[in-house]
Specification:
Shape: globular
Radius of gyration: 21 Å
Helix content: over 70%
CATH superfamily of the largest domain: MFS general substrate transporter like domains
CATH class of the largest domain: Mainly Alpha
CATH topology of the largest domain: Growth Hormone, Chain: A
CATH architecture of the largest domain: Up-down Bundle
Strand content: under 5%
Strand order of the largest sheet: 1-2
Number of strands: 2
Largest sheet: 2 strands, antiparallel
Number of domains: 2
Structural class: mainly alpha
Mean pLDDT: 83
Low-confidence stretches: 197-218, 416-434
């Protein structure tokens, strides 16, 4: 298990504890934030939902420009500043007492989070060879799940206490966790900004090769329509993200005879599965072809999971539990395959000099899934019942099969250029902290 959570020595091993630090804080935040904003701050639940939706909409728009800043101004410095900014935004929630301040702080939080994700991906691309990125991301995903599990446990203690001080302690923990993350990122080698050139000389994905920089800067990543299609298909596949937190709990409570404590067990199963097997799942993914196969395979597995969940309706309590567990096992297998394939595609199809910008755009899929996923899942699963599960599974298969042709089209547009080598400032093996 240790080998699955600890990546090889070097910059990779610094990125892992940075991920662990802020994921512990986030885990505690996720399980307590709704009650904190309603019970402690005193906001109406509907207004909390509206405010968070607005915030993540703003954050999704900020990912691309902040990713571009990471490319042009330096990925490490940008990531450090955004990690610190996220910590300050979380800390500001401690003094928020009205709806407008809540929305403003939430927008700052979502913007910093989206930008941090793009900047960290750009930093990873500069420090880690192309062939090792998907494996490292698998390590980081396992670390993320471990941190979220620990944080959720700490948040559960705060919920059990139910006091204002306990909630404030959770938010303070989350704020400090991002400051710790910023400090750890400072231990990485400083990465030089990507030099601008008049004409593209080939990148990791090579898209828009031969197009003048000024035109590319004006048009942005949206000019690369094949890459945008890949990102859109990935967004469809990511609509399953709210399943554990919203879709399955509502399904179990309203459509099955299974006891509600099964929700907690399925969460543990998913988290533990990713921790144990995400690295192993990613090992065989080394290029566009293997990534497309992994995504296509995950679509069929997800269809099987949806079929199992659909069968749990109307079954006796313990039969329903068994079928739900089977569906959850299939779901986590599909999730790990889809994630690993998407990581490979997102990096390999992105131009080598615009990784931050492209990752910022690709990462908006997560924000869109968080925003639209609850509406889609509640409409399909609660409203349509078992048929809704089959519709969700069918849409997943269609999107996963379309990913292969879309990736090939993006690769054809990109050409055969090879990504620029990482540029480090400072002596190899001796990370600078300034």
């Amino acid at each position: 298990m240790t080998s699955r959570l600890v990546p090889p020595a070097g910059p990779q091993r610094v990125l892992a504890p940075a991920q662990l630090a802020n994921s512990i804080g986030d885990g505690a935040y996720y399980v307590t934030s709704a009650l904190y904003f309603t019970h402690v701050v005193g906001l109406d639940p509907a207004r909390v939902g509206l405010g968070l939706t607005l915030a993540w909409a703003v954050g999704s728009l900020a990912g691309v420009p902040l990713g571009r800043v990471a490319d042009r101004r330096g990925a490490r410095g940008t990531a450090v500043l955004l990690a610190a900014g996220t910590g300050l935004a979380v800390g500001s929630f401690l003094v928020v007492r009205g709806f407008v301040p809540f929305v403003l702080v939430a927008c700052a939080y979502a913007t910093a989070q989206s930008g941090l994700a793009a900047a960290r991906q750009a930093l990873l691309a500069r420090l880690v060879p192309a062939g090792e990125r998907t494996g490292l991301l698998a390590h980081l995903q396992a670390t993320l799940n471990a941190g979220l599990a620990v944080g959720a446990g700490l948040g559960g203690l705060a919920l059990q206490a139910g006091t204002r001080a306990a909630y404030l302690g959770v938010f303070a923990l989350d704020a400090v966790s991002f400051l710790v993350c910023a400090g750890l990122l400072l231990r990485l080698p400083r990465v030089a900004p990507v030099a601008r050139s008049g004409v593209r000389d080939g990148g990791a994905g090579g898209g828009l090769r031969g197009r003048p920089v000024r035109e590319r800067d004006r048009l942005g990543v949206l000019r690369d329509r094949p890459y945008a299609v890949v990102a859109l298909l990935n967004t469809v596949l990511l609509l399953r993200m709210p399943l554990l937190s919203l879709g399955l709990p509502l399904w179990i409570a309203e459509r099955t005879a299974a006891p509600t404590w099964v929700v907690s067990g399925l969460f543990v199963l998913n988290t533990g599965g990713v921790m144990a097997f995400q690295v192993r799942t990613a090992r065989g993914i080394t290029g566009l072809a293997s990534a497309a196969r992994a995504v296509r395979r995950s679509g069929w597995v997800m269809l099987g999971a949806c079929g199992a969940f659909a069968l749990s309706a109307g079954a006796s309590p313990w039969v329903a539990v068994g079928v739900l567990v089977l569906g959850s096992v299939l779901q986590v297998v599909a999730e790990m395959g889809q994630s690993a394939g998407a990581w490979q595609l997102s990096f390999e199809l992105a131009p080598g000099d615009r990784v931050g910008e492209y990752q910022g755009f690709f990462g908006t899929g997560v924000t869109v899934a968080r925003t639209l996923g609850p509406l889609v899942l509640t409409s399909l699963l609660v409203g349509w019942g078992p048929v809704g599960w089959l519709v969700l599974g069918g849409a997943t298969v269609v999107a996963s099969y379309a990913m292969g042709p879309a990736a090939r089209r993006a690769a054809e547009r990109a050409g055969d250029g090879v990504g620029a080598a990482p540029v480090l400032v400072g002596r190899p093996g001796r990370p600078r902290t300034s």
